[in-house]
Amino acid sequence: MGILRPRINVLDEDHKIKIFNEAKDILENLGIFLGNKDAKELLKSEGVNHEGSRYYIPSDLVDRCLKTVPNEIKLFDREGKEHITLVNDNVHYDPGSAAILYLDENTGTIRNAFEKDFVRFSKVVEHLEYIEAQSTAIVYQDVPAQAQDWHRLYIALSNCYKPVVTGTFRKESFPIMKELLLSCRLSEDELARKPLAIFDACPSPPLKWSDLTSQSVIDAAKSMIPSEFVSMPLAGASAPISLIGSITQHAAECLAGVVIGQLAKTGAPLIWGGSPAILDMKQGTTPMGAIETMMINLGDVEIGKFLKMPTHAYMSLSDSKVPDAQAGFEGGMGALLAGLAGINMVSGPGMLDFESTQCIEKLIIDNEIIGMVKRLLRGVEDHGTPFASDILKDYNEKEELLSHPTTLKLFRKELFITGPVIDRLSRDAWKENGSKSARKRAKEQATKLAKKNSLKPIDDTLSKELESITSKNL
Amino acid sequence: MAQEQFYGEISDAIVNLDKEKAIELANRAVTENLNLLEVIEKGFGDGIRRIGDLWEEGEFFLPELMLGGRIMQESMNILLPSLKESETSASRGVIVIATIEGDIHSIGKTIVGTMLSANGFDVYDLGADVPAEKIIETAVEKNADVIGVSALLTTTMFGQKKIIDILEERGIRDNFKVIIGGAPVTREWTEECNADGFAGSAIEAVKLVKHLLNK
After folding, report:
1. How close, in Å, is residue A364 to chain B by CA atoms?
2. What CATH code is assigned to A67-378?
3. Across the interface, do A399 and B183 touch by the CB < 8 Å criterion?
4. b/e string for A92-120 if b means 16 or more Cβ within 10 A?
C-alpha cells in the first residue's frame, strides 16, 4: 500500500456524534412508520411503544442492536470462492440496479429492455475487471410482471460468476430468489457462511419502512443473507434541504433498519447504504450527478463508518441521457469521491438519466474510470531508498531508463494500464483508426466482450437446476 | 531438429527477457561454431519479431520492447566479431539516427534506434540536439543507407526539412533514404519535406526501413 491512503471527509467527529444522537432522538420521539406485520411484531415483542403504525424506537434498543451488527461482510462468487470483503475502506463497484430502460448502443435509442439485453449485459460485466460485483441491473419486459424481480437473478447467476446485488419487488419473490441462491450452495448453512447476493431494501423517506422493504430485511436476516439499506431522502422534498439535515434523516432511517434486521436475527449482516439526492429546484428532477447529492452520500457513509458498519452508496452515475461529456465527468467525479471515501459497495456504473437507464457503453467507460480510481487509492508507494539516485546513475550509460530493470519490474504496478476505451494514440494513429470517440470505442469493446468466452463457465448441472427453478415458478 | 530446438530456445530467451540465458546461448553458438547467420535470423531475430508482435497485440509495453532490444544488442555484440572472421556481413543496412538540433527529446529516437539495431541493422545513434550538418557528415562517412531524424517540437521539426534541403543542394539526396519521426510529424509533413517515410512507432519504423531497403 501507499504511504498514505488518499481520502476525503466531510464531517468531523463532533458532528458525527451530533448526527447519530439526533437520529436516535428522531426514532425515539418522532418514531418510524412501519408497514409490515412481522416488523411490528418484532418491535412489539421488545415493548416498543407505538401509535398506529408509528413506532417509537428507544435509543437503548438502537444501541443494543448496533452492538451485534457485523462490521465485515465477505462475499463469495457463484462457485463459493471468496471474492470481495466489505470492511474498513475497501472499495468495490457494481452496476447501478434495476434500470427500467436500456440504451441500445447499436441503434442509439433508449427503449424498454428485453431479457436478451440483460444476458448480454451480464456477460460483459463478467469481463470488466474493476466492476467486482454484478447486479440485477436491468428490468426487462418480456417476462411476466410477477417474475420481473427474481428472473433477473436467474439470468445474472447463469451468465456471470460474480456476487450479485439484487432485491425484491414483491414479498413472494424472496423464497424463489433464495432457492436460486441455494442451488449454488450445498446447504442453507453454506449459503449463510458464503453469501453470494446482497438484497437491497429501500425505505421510503421520510421515516417509513414499507411492507416490502421490511419483509425483505427480515427474510434476508433470517437466512443470514446481507441486506443493503437504500434510503433515498430527497433534500428539500422528502428530507430537509440542508445536507446535514438530510444526512441525519438518512441515519434515522438506516438505524431503524438495523433494529429490524437485528431483531429478526441477531448478527444478521447489514450494509449502511443509500441513494439520497437533492431536488433540482428548476426541473423538479432528482440529479444523481449533482455534487450535493454526492456530498450527502459522503456524509451518510461517514456515519456508517462511525458505527463500524459496511457501507454502500449510489455513486458513479450521471443524469445525462447518453454517454457524453456530462456522463463522463459526473460518473468520474462520483466514482472518484466514492473511492476516496472508502465506500465498500458503490452502485452506479453504467447508469444514466436519474437511475432509469442502463448503458453498456457508460459501464465500460466507468470500468476504466474505476481502474484509475483504484490506482489512486493505492497511493504513492515507497519502494525503498534511494528513491532515484541509483537509477539516475545508470542513465548516463544508455540515455534512457526504459530498459532499466526497475522500470520493467515496477511499471505494471506503478502505472494503471488503460484499456482500449482510453485514447492515448498519436493524432495520426487516432485518425488512421477512424477518429473514434470514447463512446464509439466503448461500443466496439462491448461487442467484443459480449462475444468473449466466459471466464468461469457455469457448471451444466447448476445451469439446469437454475433453469428448472425458473420454469417451475414462471 | 536439434538445431531448430536451439533456435527456439534462443527465441524464447529473448521473449522471456532472460538476458543471462540469451548471452549464454550466444556464446554457445560461437564456441560450437554454428552457422551464426542462421542463429541470428532463426533464433534472435525470431525472438525480437515475436516481441514486436506481442507489443502490437498489447501484451508487451515499451519497457519490454526496449529490454528485449537491449538483450538483442548485447547478444549481437558476442556474435558479430565471429561473423566478421568468416567475412560474412549480417547487417541488413546502415542507419544514422539522431534527434535534430534544438531538440533534446531523445527517448523516441532511442527506442527506434534500439529496435532497428535489434533487427540487424547497423545503427549509429548520434544522440539528441545534433546539427543537420553533423548528421549528414556521419551518413556520408558511414556510407549509410538510411538517415533517421527525430523531432518532438513543432519548432524543431523544420530541421528535418533542412537535412533534406542540404542533401538536395549537395546533389546526394538519392544516396540515402530519409525517414522522419516524432510527435508532431504527420504524413502531410513527410510529403511536404520530401522525406521517404515516417512511422508512428518503433515497430512501424523497423517495417518501414525494411520496406525502403527491400529487406
Report:
1. 18
2. 3.20.20.480
3. no
4. bbbbbbbbbbbbebeeeebeebbbebbbb
